[in-house]
Write a structure and sequence with these properties.
With 490 residues, this protein is an all-alpha fold. The chain is built from 23 helices and four strands. The strands form two sheets. The chain has a two-stranded antiparallel ribbon with strand order 1-2. A hairpin with an 8-residue loop joins β3 and β4. α11 runs parallel beside α13, α12 packs antiparallel against α13 and α18 crosses α23. The radius of gyration is 28 Å and the shape is elongated. It comes from Echinostoma caproni. This is Importin N-terminal domain-containing protein. InterPro entries: ARM-like, ARM-type_fold.
Length: 490
């Protein structure tokens, strides 16, 4: 490879504006060649994808990647290249990714490089968009990406393949996902075991990849078909068990100073995985998992009430799961996450089973108590008003409440705390696909205050589905809250 092209790429990435402009113009002339014999993009790929090329600066490599990306994004340029040149570019890209593989740490050193990594993932997505299922494509490419630990590039490629909407391609894509899922699941489980490693980046990247495998087929959680059918119950169970086990480990890390941005990000990925796995499971799998899901969810909410480590997004996925399962009924077309008859019966048994030696402390009571603690953060004066004079607070103008140590009264209105009428009209059906941002979701939720309003929806669902039992539960909760408040502010 001529050193002239490398010098040109380095010049195009220099700090001198005049040099950048001149080099950029020469690069445009170089890549504009229409002569197939020149094989300009192969030459560019040889320069950019040579890991031993120490004379090429990182910024110069990035400039070269941009020019390659432009060729891939222009269908006419890529299509007009001879087949052998396209094959050479693919081969060089895959070899470059393979050179960064670090199986012992389950990471690719090239993918984590700033600018370079994201650009390579974009290139892979574009290759899939242009070549997948054509004569030049080989399914061995997916295996090569796995062997290279190139999780982001693999994920981008799968997302590009998911963009094809023709039924024949959708069928092939679903078969591809079903083939890759066991391998990806094993890798994800292995990576998420050690939370005290130097970086959680491999676990986070593999969590994203697993999430893409679950959601990219864009199957319908209400009517199916389902990615995780009855035969795939062990797969769903492994995802649930591992995710909740790791979340519990995250809570036991020690002091809050051990909790880093990576831990928060990983927790978000885990909670999102739990919801996604539930959505792509069929009603029978959900029914067999319902008891375990509610037990673990209640445990997470109990820990969150004491030590709020999960951020708003992570809590959104947990609350969306609770809401979706509470709205589940056997053979109900309106249910968010339908259950089979056995699962629907198991749900009610699970909710009203004792969670402690106290008979009234059912699993549902513990769940709602912690839910209110984490999502309905009321001020002391609001708690005093609601517990001491609820009828006045529910009146149109509210009630003026004065704390024992305050000179000024504060107006407390139930409507400002929770406007039940508006909530019931506008938010009684939250589309979970929209909440996750899945393809084809129609409901706009940009202004949706997820945690608070999902909590309200959970309470609304309880009152609609379980009426007398739910009212008794909420009254008992109010009595307990009043006692705790009086003991605290006595």
């Amino acid at each position: 490879m001529s050193s002239g092209l490398i010098d040109l790429l380095n010049s195009a990435a220099s700090n001198d504006p005049n040099t950048v402009v001149a080099a950029g113009q020469q690069l445009l002339l170089f890549t504009a060649s229409c002569d197939p014999k020149e094989r300009v993009y192969e030459k560019l790929a040889i320069a950019v994808f040579n890991p031993e090329n120490s004379s090429l600066t990182p910024n110069g490599r990035f400039v070269g990647l941009i020019h390659l990306k432009n060729a891939l994004f222009d269908p006419q340029i890529w299509k007009n290249l001879v087949s052998s040149e396209r094959s050479s570019v693919r081969y060089l890209l895959l070899n470059y990714l393979a050179s960064g593989s670090d199986p012992s740490r389950m990471i690719n050193a090239i993918e984590v490089m700033p600018q370079i990594g994201p650009c390579l993932a974009t290139l892979m997505a574009r290759l899939v968009h242009n070549d997948w299922l054509k004569e030049e494509w080989s399914d061995e490419i997916w295996e090569q990406l796995i062997n290279a630990c190139a999780w982001s590039s693999l994920r981008s490629g799968l997302r590009a393949a998911a963009g094809f909407r023709l039924p024949a391609r959708r069928k092939v894509f679903l078969e591809l996902i079903q083939t890759l899922l066991p391998t990806v699941l094993n890798l994800w489980q292995t990576s998420s075991m050690n939370l005290r490693q130097a970086t959680l980046d491999p676990a986070i990247r593999l969590s994203r990849l697993l999430y893409t495998c679950l959601t990219a087929p864009s199957l319908q959680p209400k009517s199916g078909p389902y990615l995780l059918d009855s035969a795939a119950l062990p797969v769903a169970t492994r995802i649930f068990d591992q995710s909740f086990a790791v979340l519990n480990k995250l809570y036991s890390l020690g002091s809050d100073s051990c909790w880093t941005a990576e831990h928060a990000q990983f927790a978000r990925r885990l909670t999102k995985l739990i919801l996604a796995a539930t959505m792509v499971s069929n009603p029978e799998v959900r029914g067999k998992s319902i008891n375990m899901l509610f037990l673990h969810t209640t445990e997470i909410l109990s820990k969150q009430a004491v030590r709020p480590l999960l951020d708003k997004k992570a809590m959104t996925w947990i609350l969306a799961l609770v809401y979706g399962l509470l709205s589940s009924k056997a053979c109900d077309s309106g249910a968010q996450l339908p259950l089979d008859t056995s699962g629907s019966s198991e749900l009610q048994k699970c909710l009203f089973s004792p969670a402690s030696s106290t008979v009234s402390d059912t699993l549902l009571f513990v769940l709602v108590r912690n839910l209110i603690h984490t999502s309905f953060s009321l001020s002391p004066v609001e708690i005093l008003g609601i517990t001491s004079n609820p009828e006045s607070c529910m009146a149109a103008g509210g009630s003026c409440i004065t704390m024992a140590d305050a000179d000024v009264a504060t107006n407390v209105s139930a409507a400002t705390i929770w406007d039940v009428d508006v909530q019931a009209q506008d938010l009684i059906r939250v589309n979970l696909e929209s909440l996750l941002g899945l393809h084809g979701a129609e409901q706009h939720v940009a202004c949706f205050q997820s945690c608070r309003q999902l909590s309200e929806l959970v309470v609304t669902q309880l009152l609609r589905c379980y009426e007398t039992k739910a009212r008794s539960l909420l009254l008992h909760l109010l009595e307990v809250s009043s006692f705790i408040f009086l003991m605290t502010y006595k």
